[in-house]
């Protein structure tokens, strides 16, 4: 059955770029469907509001923070990856059931250049900063790509729980060993929100002795160059922000709903970078 109404839900959701992305593809493909929307959904009224969305004819829902675990929990059928991550960012709604998927991990993988995967990730030491929902997807993706992934979080217990949940044979990096482990890593990704606010500096680790071949990734895409990436660039390191991951996970959702594979064009990247 063709899906006519789609939207992203969050609390708050006003900042979301998803409508720009999905409506770009809807227009580009001249699809005869409603424009993609963004809707605030209160976590305390989640199930009731989801029932309202079904009644209003919504067939595809993207889910952002802080609703991803709630979305997973109310779903009738769940994909293998959403089970693994215990969260959902893509829901397909019908009159009698909700299907859940999670495209964050594959969106992260698809955002990476093949050369970076081969030279900096597969069979290499990688480091993830943070232990929230985004870290869960990134750690899962890096493990799937065959890296020796370790995790640093200011609360080590959270890092241990995440690794255990994903059945990854690894241990959290302690504060004392962080700089040494970072210096021996080929790929480092920040999944924390540090640096998102204006004037906020992400000083979790020192870039003083990090090797010039190390690739630095920050999930933050607004600002385009976070303090984390600025510090890395100042040392001559190659960097990437999270904008392409955002688009790639959206492309996977779009394909689930509309059965059309879309590409990440320079036009779309420029459109988003200009927002």
Describe this entry's structure for a reader.
This protein is of the alpha/beta class and about 280 residues long. It folds into two domains: about 5-105 and about 245-275, Rossmann fold (3-Layer(aba) Sandwich), CATH 3.40.50.10860; about 110-240, Rossmann fold (3-Layer(aba) Sandwich), CATH 3.40.50. It is about 40% helix and about 15% strand. It has twelve helices and eleven strands. It has a six-stranded mixed β-sheet with strand order 2-1-3-5-6-4, sandwiched between helices. Strands 8-7-9-10-11 form a five-stranded parallel β-sheet, with helices on both faces. Strand 7 (about 125-130), helix 7 and strand 8 form a beta-alpha-beta unit. Helix 5 crosses helix 7 (about 135-145) and helix 5 crosses helix 11.
What layout of secondary structure does this protein have?
Layout: E1 5-10, H1 18-28, E2 37-40, H2 46-55, E3 58-63, H3 68-73, E4 77-78, H4 80-85, E5 90-93, E6 98-101, H5 104-110, H6 114-121, E7 125-129, H7 133-144, E8 148-152, H8 156-165, H9 178-183, E9 187-190, E10 215-218, H10 227-234, E11 238-240, H11 243-258, H12 266-273
Parallel strand pairs: 1-2, 1-3, 4-6, 7-8, 7-9, 9-10, 10-11
Antiparallel strand pairs: 3-5, 5-6
